[in-house]
Amino acid sequence: MTDAPKPHVPRTNTDHDVSIARVDDRHRYILSADGVEAGYIEFHERDGVSEMPHTIVDEAFGGRGYGMALAKFAFDDARERGLKVQPTCPFLDRYMKKHPEYEDLRA
């Protein structure tokens, strides 16, 4: 198991106390708002590729940019760890296409 990065506090359009962390034993990047799990990206790593099939943000926390914050965190983490990304989640695929700085990560 690799060392998980320190929790990150993203800039989002909300007044909530927000942090994101990679939780390897759950295969998720988890975004917490005010101590409550508000969303996550599921991932599965194999042979230097991180497949990301799902991005979920609880409806109660929708419209605050949490999905985009999760995507940026997950892609930055993959880059830092030398992984390629297979964004099988449609949201993450669109995010990567709209942010060409991440296209080099595409597996």
Q: End-to-end span in angstroms?
A: 22 Å
E-strand count: 5
Q: What is the molecular shape?
A: globular
> Helical proportion?
10-25%
Mean pLDDT: 90
Query: If you compute it from the alpha carbons, what radius of gyration comes out, rounded to the nearest whole angstrom?
Result: 13 Å
Portion of residues in beta strands equals: 25-35%
Order of helices and strands: EEEEHEH
The biggest beta sheet, please? 5 strands, mixed
Helix and strand content put the structural class at alpha+beta
List the main descriptive attributes of the protein structure presented here.
alpha+beta, 107 residues, 5 strands, 2 helices, 5-stranded mixed β-sheet
Explained architecture:
With 107 residues, the chain is an alpha+beta fold. It is 22% helix and 33% strand. The chain has 2 helices and 5 strands. The chain has helices at residues 66-80, 90-98; strands at 18-23, 28-33, 36-46, 49-57, 84-86. It has a 5-stranded mixed β-sheet. A hairpin with a 4-residue loop joins strand 1 and strand 2. The longest helix is centred in the C-terminal third of the chain and has 15 residues, at 66-80. It is globular. 32% of the residues are buried. The model has no long low-confidence stretch (mean pLDDT 90).
Summarize this structure briefly.
The chain has 2 helices and 5 strands. With about 110 residues, it is of the alpha+beta class. The relative contact order is 0.18.
Question: How is the topology of this model organized?
Answer:
Blueprint lengths: L17 E6 L4 E6 L2 E11 L2 E9 L8 H15 L3 E3 L3 H9 L9
Parallel strand pairs: 4-5
Antiparallel strand pairs: 1-2, 2-3, 3-4
